[in-house]
Amino acid sequence: MDTALLLGRVLLGAVFAVAGVAKLADLPGSRQAMRDFGVPAPFAAPLGMLLPLAELTVAVALIPRASAWWGALGSLILLLVFVAGIGTSLARGKQLDCHCFGQLHSAPAGRLTLARNGALAAVATFILFQGRDDPGPSVIAWADALLVAERVALGIGVLALVLLALEGWMLVHLLSQNGRLLVRLEALEAGRGIEVGNEAATPGLPVGTPAPGFSLSGLHGETLTLDALRAAGKPVMLIFSDPNCGPCNALLPDIGRWQREHAGIMTMAVVTRGTPETNRSKASEHGIGTVLLQQNREVAEAYQAHATPTAVLVRPDGTIGNSPAPGAEAIRSLVARTAGAPGSAPTIPLRQGPSNGGVRNGTNGAQGRVPVPAPPAAARIGEAAPPLRLPDLEGQEVDLASFKGQTTLVLFWNPGCGFCARMLDDLKAWEADSPPDAPRLLVVSAGSVEANRKMVLRSTVVLDQNFTAGRAFGASGTPSAVLIDAEGRIASEVAVGAPAVLALAGSPQEGAPTRES
After folding, report:
1. For a Cys staple, 102 with which of 22, 151, 262, 493, CB 3.0–4.6 Å?
2. CA–CA dist 294, 149 (Å, integer)
3. CA-CA distance, 512 to 490, in Å (whole number)?
4. What is the set of domains in the chain, with CATH numbers?
5. pLDDT tens digits for 130-187?
6. pLDDT band for position 369 (cuts 50, 70, 90)
7. What angle do CA 366, 370, 372 make, to 5 degrees?
């Protein structure tokens, strides 16, 4: 029994020590895991720091006999909290990144993670009940018989092992970092046409060839395809990113700003990987409207975008518009070239010609460019509303023009959007008891007919699976809304989020802010 108690304490102590140190080495990841598991943002940062400290405290308490029982109690409490959090997420159909061992090992928390924590909780329970009076022998009792010289030698040996482990850990991270740098350098060299051997490197898919199609999920359960992104008739810029890539995360504020500033010129989408929960908070923080989730790197590989971040432009006709642009500076340059100077049309590269550097427009040496007229920007206040003809849930076409004569609130919606789901009850309450001067409601929704019928809304619901109407009005996500006056003109900026939409509808939440998408 004593041996079993000792082994249990050593096992728990080792697990919590490794977990605590690994989380302290990656505090941003620990805080993100807190947010993913539903901890409110103001508490995520302090709890992200307190959790690894609590794990280290438990690990230390398990070693001495005097505090071993309390260490076992602390470990059981922590493990039960972990089990409850993981079990709740699994019951909701989500597999969140637990960040259990920091960057050493971080994977979606599934049934195996739940079973592991349950087994460790059983060990902690065993120590609590069997070790109340005697938690087992001391972990270092055997050292009492050692001579002074032997103890010194033992201390030196332990210190050497710790230093060796630290050196190994640093070496692994250094090699991993160097590997990423080499990949990025190769991509940069290829992007600048640096010669390899006797042939010039030609990275990515040839300019002018058809862009590979794809069908990916968004952050709220919607499905978007390349054709859907191209539906607005504008160039599509795909930015390949990764949630664990530092340069990618540093570029996110710029991407959010570009999506808003250049919405009338190009459609910009971030193609990343990971769970919706992992990416949703980042997208929300930086105002990024279109994020697509690939399983691993299948779409990036199809576009031969081997590093992150990398951008590839797809022309309005569905062909490749540039060689991959790896790195933040190359992406910024591509955005600037595509957007063009203020008041001028953007330029899209022509199809590359023969390997000697010629291009099809007859120029020599440099790649030719032709101006491509920018699509009209989203309608502004006072302008006529863009035409909108979409099928309702019965398959009958609904024309926005038929709503003239009364102010209309056009609400862009998605039944699979978590923010929409939380707003649904308020929207129904508004329908049941709207102010006398409230606008008529037209819901432009994605999702299936069945999903939209389950909402049981009284107002007219039309289907727009590709979000084409939303982009035409300047909306970047759901829920968002815009007012159309009785003459069919835009009467408000785009309201984003439940409070702003309800305020625009004339609900009691008057004064909620609106902003242009």
Report:
1. 22
2. 59
3. 19
4. 2-145 (no CATH), 215-371 (3.40.30.10), 389-505 (3.40.30.10)
5. 877 777 766 666 555 656 776 677 678 767 776 776 676 566 656 655 655 555 555 4
6. very low
7. 145
